[in-house]
Structures are given as structure tokens and as C-alpha cells.
Design goal:
This protein has 2 domains: 206 residues, Endonuclease, Chain A, CATH 3.30.870.10; 179 residues, Rossmann fold. 41% of the residues lie in helices and 15% in strands. Helix 2 packs across helix 5.
Length: 472
């Protein structure tokens, strides 16, 4: 019994339906595709049938859930941000290219897709606000009318390799319609959504080629270096474990080497970290080695890194001896009480703070001075033309004393309270809950409960140097 439905089983696949429609309708002038997911690695399966179609439009529904979650974590409302929509598309497509099986056919297909967008062979848009789960494929012939109705396919199949029915097939359920009213309705819906879409320009798509393995401009030497980095990881960089001329009296200790490598990684990823070993394990040595590694990794020799080291007066002599022993260059060492004398904080790329727990109180003037130093951008100019953020190492055997705000105030020295690089994006909200929870037992036990609440349910956050009262 004949039916308009098909399920991708056997040879009754979406790609076969495409083949049948295109081969039996040589005059198709318009092909429109509305898909929830799009894979460049699957595009080339369809590409041969589009060779003689002059007008091709593909509208893609991005994963707006991720964007909405990010906006909500900052207390914002996502209303269809064009740049964020574009970034999401490029990120997803780049991931698709990197994860695609490395075969010449796949590579040629992806390059074909990029070239088609670059030459405007196809028009590509991403929809910024709707959760598009619909899949619609519209075929309209030249002089489309009631007498030349065309076709529309709709159902569950996306424009992906598995959705088309190539390779590892998904179970799909689709239907082919060829009544003029059905094609007309689908066309009107598509046109309405198309006008709301964000254009994907060829300049953005060209970035995909430059930022993935499709880039064919690398020299053999650069490819070899890339191989070493991928195979050996960060150990190809300056590695303290490979130092053969350690200063006299210092031993090569594996746990310190591990701390240096992990600390440097955190410094690059989050702009700062806590070095919180207990007393006597050589935190000064580890901090010095990280500073030396950073000196050579921070665009040396184009840029000469300057390090600011802040220490209690009693520890200054020990730091000076260690720094000189390890021959760390371009450093300035000051004591806790001399921060107000630093009037060129943008000069420093790295700030090391020993006994960092002494700066846990954000109402103190010293904390305010330190925060200004840590939050000031450096003189180093990045490739995008902006100034680099400071890197901060907090050294303490007791980073958390008694109160949650102790640790919060120290984290804010290298993190944005409302948009952090950590797993918890909104740190201010996270710490507010814990600060309020820590106050409740004291409130309940007080004889003057109302007065106690009024006096203790506020704390000051000087993330940016200005006082901000937050109520529990």
C-alpha cells in the first residue's frame, strides 16, 4: 500500500527522497530548509543534488537553552542577542568539524560548504529566539503556482548525516506532501522565520576554516610543533621538572613540580588561584617557579613580564633570597603596608600575595588598595587589541578563616563576582546564600533578634572598589 510517510528504514531514507524529487523535477528553482540541527559534515551528502538549484536558503535553530541559562545566571533576560547567536552557531559548527571522522570525502564536503557560503551559493541564517524543533524542506519549481505545486517534506529528520539516512541511521518519521496549499503554508511560515534570522556572513564562516584542521596555510614546521604540543601537552613548554641547574640547597620535589604545572594551568584559565599548602612545604619556591614559567610564557621576548610580590615584613628577606637564587627577573617586592605607594599598577602582569588571608576583610583600606592593583589591566596588548588581565597568585595556609566572606573577598581579587570563569558563574549569589546561612543561627540565639538581624544581614562587597550592600 502506497503511503506518503517514510521512516529511514532500509532504502526509504530522507536522502533517497531528496534524490527522487530532484531527479524527477529538473526545474526546481527554490530549495528552503528549516532545521533544528545542522551539521556541515552532513551537508555534502545533499550537495550534489543542489548543483542546478539557483536559490538555496537554510535556516538553523540554535541551542538557545545554553544562552538563556548563561543570561539567567547573571540575572539578565535573553532577548535574541545577534552576536551571541552567531557565536553559538560558529562554536557548534567548529565542534562538528573537529569531531567529524577524518576522511577525504568528509573534508571535501565541509570545505565545499564553507565555499558555498563564501560565494553566496547558499544563504545561511540562524534563528536567535525560538526553540526551533521543526524540520521542513521545501522544493519549488520555476513559475511555482497551483499547477506547479512543488513538494514539502516535514517530520523528524535534521540536516545531519544520520538524519539524512547515511551511515548510522536514526529512526525518523517523515512525510512528503505535494498539495499546493501545503507547500504554500510551509513557504509562508519559512519566510516569516527567515526574516527574523541572523545572517551568517562568509567572513564568519571563513573563520571556521582558519580555526580548524581545514586550515591549509600551516608550514610543515608548524604542523610538527602542533604535533609535539598535542602529544606531550604542556611539558613541551618551560618545565621546572627539566631544570638541571637548581640553586644549591634546593631539591627537585615531584609534588612541587605538580603544583607548578597545575598552578600555571589555573593561572591561564582563571587568571588566578590559591596556593594553599600547609606551613613548611615550600610555597615560596612553588610561587617563584610559577612566576618564572609565566615570565617566559607571557609573549617573551616581545613582552617583558613584570611581577609584583606582596609580603608581610617578616617574610620579605626569605622571598628576596629565593627570588635571587632562582634568578627571577623584573620583580618588585613590597610589604603589606606599602600598597599605597604603588602608583603604576598596570606595569605588573603578575601579582603574588603571600599570607593572602590578611586581606580577607573587604572593609579595610589595604584590601581596597590591593583590589585596585589586581583589577587594573596590564600594559600587554592582546591580539584583539584589548589589554590583558592581571594574573594573581594567592598564597596562604589558611585561606578560609571563620566566615564565607573571607574566601569570597579573596576570590574577587581575580574573578568577576557576577561573571566568573569558574563552574559557578554568579559568585556573588553563591556566596550571599552561604553568608546568610552562616548568620541565621546567631540571629535565632540573640535576645534582641530584630536588632541582630538589622545589624548583621548586610555585608559589603568591594569587587570594583565601591561599597555595595547586599541583604540576606
Amino acid at each position: 500500500m502506497s503511503t506518503k510517510f517514510f521512516t529511514n528504514e532500509g532504502s526509504n531514507t530522507l536522502i533517497q527522497k531528496f534524490k527522487g524529487i530532484f531527479e524527477n523535477n529538473k526545474d526546481i528553482e527554490f530549495f528552503d530548509a528549516l532545521v533544528g540541527y545542522f551539521r556541515a559534515s552532513g551537508y555534502f551528502k545533499l550537495r550534489p543534488y543542489l548543483e542546478n538549484v539557483p536559490n538555496i536558503r537554510i535556516l538553523i535553530g540554535i541551542n538557545v537553552d545554553k544562552i538563556i541559562e548563561k543570561y539567567q545566571s547573571k540575572g539578565l533576560l535573553f532577548q535574541g542577542d545577534a552576536q551571541q547567536t552567531l557565536n553559538e552557531f560558529l562554536t557548534e559548527t567548529k565542534s562538528d568539524i573537529q569531531k567529524a571522522s577524518y576522511e577525504s570525502e568528509v573534508e571535501e564536503g565541509i570545505i565545499q560548504f564553507i565555499n558555498d557560503v563564501a560565494t553566496e551559493r547558499i544563504q545561511l541564517r540562524a534563528h536567535p529566539s525560538k526553540r526551533l524543533h521543526a524540520k521542513i524542506y521545501i522544493f519549488k519549481p520555476d513559475n511555482w503556482s497551483q499547477h506547479r505545486a512543488g513538494n514539502v517534506i516535514t517530520g523528524s529528520s535534521n540536516l545531519t548525516e544520520s538524519g539524512l539516512g547515511s551511515g548510522n541511521n536514526n529512526y525518523e518519521f517523515n512525510v512528503v506532501l505535494n498539495d499546493f496549499t501545503d507547500v504554500e503554508f510551509a513557504s509562508k511560515e519559512f519566510d516569516k522565520l527567515w526574516l527574523e534570522g541572523i545572517s551568517i556572513l562568509h567572513s564568519e564562516v571563513e573563520k571556521l576554516k582558519k580555526e580548524t584542521y581545514l586550515n591549509d596555510t600551516y608550514t610543515p614546521f608548524e604542523v610538527y610543533i602542533k604535533f609535539l604540543i598535542e602529544y606531550f601537552g604542556k611539558s613541551v613548554d618551560f618545565d621546572p621538572n627539566s631544570i638541571s641547574d637548581l640553586p644549591k640547597g634546593f631539591k627537585r620535589l615531584s609534588y612541587q613540580i605538580d603544583a607548578v604545572n597545575e598552578g600555571f594551568m589555573l593561572l591561564q584559565k582563571h587568571n588566578g588561584f590559591f596556593l594553599a599548602d600547609v606551613v613548611g612545604l615550600g610555597k615560596t619556591v612553588v610561587g617563584t617557579l610559577i612566576a618564572k614559567k609565566f615570565f617566559y610564557a607571557n609573549d617573551f621576548p616581545t613582552h617583558i613580564t613584570n611581577t609584583l610580590i606582596i609580603v608581610p615584613p617578616a617574610l620579605k628577606e626569605n622571598w628576596v633570597e629565593t627570588l635571587e637564587s632562582f634568578q627571577l627577573h623584573n620583580y618588585t617586592i613590597v610589604t603589606n603596608g606599602s600598597l599605597h605607594k604603588i602608583n603604576d599598577s598596570e606595569k605588573f602582569d603578575l601579582v603574588i600575595i603571600d599570607e593572602a588571608h590578611k586581606f580577607r576583610n573587604d572593609t579595610a583600606e589595604a584590601y581596597n588598595e590591593l583590589q585596585k592593583i589586581c583589577k587594573t589591566k596590564t600594559k600587554r596588548i592582546l591580539k584583539d587589541g584589548t589589554k590583558a588581565d592581571k594574573k594573581v597568585i594567592l598564597i596562604s595556609a589558611t585561606p578560609l578563616n571563620n566566615r564565607p566572606e573571607d574566601i569570597a573577598n579573596q576570590v574577587y581579587l581575580f574573578q568577576d563576582a557576577k561573571d566568573s570563569t569558574l563552574e559557578i558563574s554568579n559568585l556573588q549569589h553563591f556566596f550571599r546564600q552561604r553568608i546568610c546561612s552562616s548568620l541565621r543561627p546567631k540571629m535565632k540565639s540573640s535576645k534582641t533578634e530584630d536588632d541582630n538581624i538589622n545589624s548583621k544581614n548586610n555585608f559589603t562587597n568591594r569587587k570594583t572598589g565601591s561599597s555595595q550592600s547586599i541583604k540576606c
